[in-house]
Design goal:
Blueprint: H1 5-24, H2 28-50, H3 58-78, H4 84-113, H5 118-145, H6 159-178, H7 189-208, H8 216-238, H9 241-265, H10 269-274, H11 285-289, H12 298-307, E1 311-316, H13 318-323, H14 326-338, E2 342-347, H15 357-363, E3 372-374, H16 375-378, E4 387-391, E5 424-428, E6 449-453, H17 456-469
Parallel strand pairs: 1-2, 1-4, 2-3, 4-5, 5-6
Length: 470
């Protein structure tokens, strides 16, 4: 694909807009404008590409643009915040699958023309491998998060050995395609690349099924990096600069985010991917029932907050998102602040199902950015807090993560130190453990902890009413 001066400059402009957009995604205040800037950059890149392709392709590309835009708009408008991680996984998988199919198509055409060079012969199998793994891995991640299939950790004997043999077979097939059938004479180069495609799809499934639900946000981020790598590799195949630039940016940013998230969980990335640690399942329900808890009413919580609490820190979790209780949470903040109480929020890096999940929920109802503190900033604040209110969260406040005598999926994960507050108030439906399946010892500290068993929205509504009447 030959690129003139004008399209090349447009590609550089698009790349600059991508970088600026990603840079502005770092903080909630600038995230929306960053997303708009990056989207405008993609529009510039798309228009520039129309000037360097064959004319007869315009109709198909135009139809694809319209179809993709309609699907994107409808799904973005209708998706619930609780399902946003699934949407990210689905879109990411589509990108990886598209890169793999484009590479396969290009290999077929280059083989027919007899013009398969070293660059194409090397990058095409790589693109097919990475894109297919990203596609199928994202499908499995979507299925896990949506609880359609592969829930928990799915393992079988010698799983890692099977993965290694499969990967070795993919390398042999790729080499056979590059050497035009010299290794496996019964397979043509095109048939070898097709075999790479299907084998990589299987590998994508096998790599992701053993990973427990608590690690899904990291898996989605890693697969996003894979898609970026696949896009960059396809850029070499198609000789398209913007694919190389954009794919590299996505791959690099996805890799950085993956490492940051694995650090937030306190677990090495290799252990997350290859260890296949599932949710522990927590304690058995009958065992939970035998341990006493301080079961309180909403009026008791409201009375304490009204009479005793001068400083309150709220920790929102996935249960809050499921109940769509963010508006009621805002009402509680206003009721407390009207009575002179200082209110802050503690946001864990992996709260919810993806980074920033809780930030979006809070800011969409008008809670000030300044009140949303990350883990490092909020933990010292618990020392002089009169109450820590945990709504629909467990794993991110579970002190079992720092218990050296326990080996759990969250062991070593930095947590919000809510136990340092004068009072700990849980609003949750039951004693069931969180997403990682690890029982929380704070539930049973009857001197410190108040357990309000209720749906997040209903519970908050009752507490707000109690605070107002207090």
């Amino acid at each position: 694909m030959e690129t003139g001066v004008a399209p090349f400059l447009a590609y550089l402009l698009a790349a600059a807009l991508f970088i600026i957009g990603i840079r502005r995604l770092r903080t909630p205040e600038t995230a929306r404008s960053g997303n708009t800037i990056a989207a405008f950059g993609m529009t510039v890149a798309l228009i520039a590409t129309l000037f360097v392709i064959e004319f007869e392709s315009l109709l198909l590309i135009g139809a694809a643009v319209v179809l993709g835009s309609v699907v994107g708009i409808l799904t973005a408008q209708r998706v619930q915040m609780t399902a946003m991680p699934q949407m990210v996984a689905a879109y990411n998988g589509v990108g990886g699958g598209a890169a793999a199919l484009i590479a396969l198509s290009e290999f077929y055409h280059l083989s027919e023309e007899g013009s398969l060079g070293v660059v194409a012969g090397t990058t095409i199998p790589l693109t097919v491998l990475v894109g297919s793994v990203s596609f199928m891995g994202s499908v499995v991640a979507f299925s896990k998060l949506q609880e359609l299939a592969f829930t928990g950790s799915v393992t079988f004997p010698l799983q890692q050995v099977v993965n290694a043999v499969l990967f070795l077979g993919i390398l042999v097939l790729a080499a056979n395609a590059f050497l035009e059938g010299e290794i496996l004479p019964f397979l043509s180069p095109v048939a070898s690349v097709i075999a790479v495609l299907f084998a990589s799809l299987v590998l994508g499934v096998l790599l992701v099924i053993p990973i427990g639900g608590a690690d899904m946000p990291i898996v989605i981020s890693l697969l996003n990096a894979f898609t970026g790598l696949a896009a960059a590799a396809s850029g070499f195949v198609l000789e398209n600069y913007i694919l190389i630039i954009a794919g590299t940016i996505v791959g690099a940013s996805g890799t950085i985010l993956t490492r940051l998230m694995s650090g937030a969980l306190g677990r090495p990335l290799g252990k997350i991917i290859f260890a296949g640690i599932a949710a522990s399942g927590g304690s058995k329900q009958e065992e939970l029932g035998e341990r006493p808890v301080n079961d309180v009413s909403a009026s008791a919580v409201g009375e304490y907050l009204s009479d005793e609490a001068n400083k309150v820190i709220i920790v929102p979790g996935y249960g809050l998102a499921v109940a769509q209780a963010q508006s009621v949470m805002k009402d509680l903040v206003e009721a407390l602040e009207k009575g002179g109480t200082e209110v802050l929020f503690g946001i864990h890096p992996v709260a919810g199902r993806m980074p920033g999940h809780m930030n979006v929920l809070m800011t969409e109802v008008g809670i000030s950015y300044e009140k949303l503190l990350d883990l490092e900033d909020v933990n010292p604040e618990f020392e002089d807090a009169d109450a820590a209110i945990i709504v629909g969260a467990n794993d991110v406040v579970n002190p079992a993560a720092n218990d050296p005598e326990k080996d759990t999926p969250i062991s070593g994960m930095p947590v919000l130190e809510v136990g340092n507050a004068e009072r700990v108030i849980f609003i949750k439906r039951s004693l069931s453990p969180g997403f990682a399946g690890v029982d929380n010892p704070l539930f049973y500290d009857t001197d410190k902890t108040m357990m309000l068993f209720a749906d997040a929205k209903q519970g908050l509504e009752e507490v707000v009413e109690a605070v107002k009447n207090g």
